[in-house]
Amino acid sequence: MMHADTAPPGAAAPVFYQTDEEGHHSEGSTMLGFWLYLMSDCLIFATLFATYGVLGRSYAAGPTPKDLFDLPGIAVNTAMLLFSSITYGFAMLEMDRDRIKRTQVWLAITGLFGVAFVALEIREFAHLFHEGAPPWRSAFLSSFYTLVGTHGLHVSMGILWLVVLMVQVRKYGLIVENKRRLMCLSMFWHFLDLIWIGVFTVVYLMGVLE
Amino acid sequence: MSADAHHMAGPVGHGGASAGHGHDPHAHSEGGHGTVQSYMTGFVLSVILTVIPFWLVMGNVLDNSLVTTLVILALGGVQMVVHVVYFLHMSTKSEGGWTFMALIFTITLVVIMLAGSVWVMYHLNHNMMPMDAHDVMNNAR
Fold first, then answer.
1. Chain A (78-107) residues lying within 8 Å, Cβ to Cβ, of chain B
2. CB contact under 8 A, B53 and A208
3. Which ipTM value was assigned to this complex?
4. Which pLDDT belongs to residue B43?
5. How far apart are CA A149 and CA B98, in angstroms?
6. What is the pTM of this model?
């Protein structure tokens, strides 16, 4: 911190680098690094959206979105993800106050909403297969399953991560490392909710409109 | 510097429970922490911005489907911003501005990729039009 003793008299103290970088920087750079990961994930989804945008009207004389999509079901799905976002927020607020039990309860509720979302999506896919709309039926369906399936896979991985972190918190408590991990998962979880906004707008709502 | 502010944000957030909420704005200026109000604001806005497009499409409120499309795309865009601000706690200052820079860069790439793909492929489809059976038959005559 003090470079005054090395400076010539009368000159301003030169600052070569931040001396307290070590201890403080690690957490900040984890968050920044994780943010960069999310941005690259965002690019993956953008390519899938672009693919869907190009192929989404190529039905190959097969079923169209209007025949297949059940909007009330999608609305329920959307609600599940939105509720899970706010409950994760509450978990983070309890984590800030170092209340382990309440954090765990909110995390568990978040996980249940996530499981409900994935279950509803699997049910929807099963229904589509039953209706004669598997991925290989048309370019529209291939791109649809790729986009929505990739999102669903992300949510499933998020649930797995959530369970692992709940075990960690149970075992080691809300130590600095676990807080950092929970904050990363928080960003991941809210990010998936953000992607879902694009999915329900572009795929489901615009699909049914056409 | 931003790291110091970040570490202070935690304890400051606790103050909300006691006297007043006057000190709270510090809490969500930095990093991953919000307040109950900021989460609830984000949630309520999200619910409104989700219900409107579903209502527009399911209730067939607007006759013109092009207008409906533009409206739901705009609402989706607004809701994404709401999520970034209230749930991801992004601001132009978090992590010394680097997250914001990365976000702007990503948005630029995404816009180029989406708009470019749809634009180019639309023209490609247009120029290779006689693909369906009907057109092929017409051309054969």
1. 78-79, 82, 85-86, 89-90, 92-93, 96-97
2. no
3. 0.82
4. 95
5. 31
6. 0.80
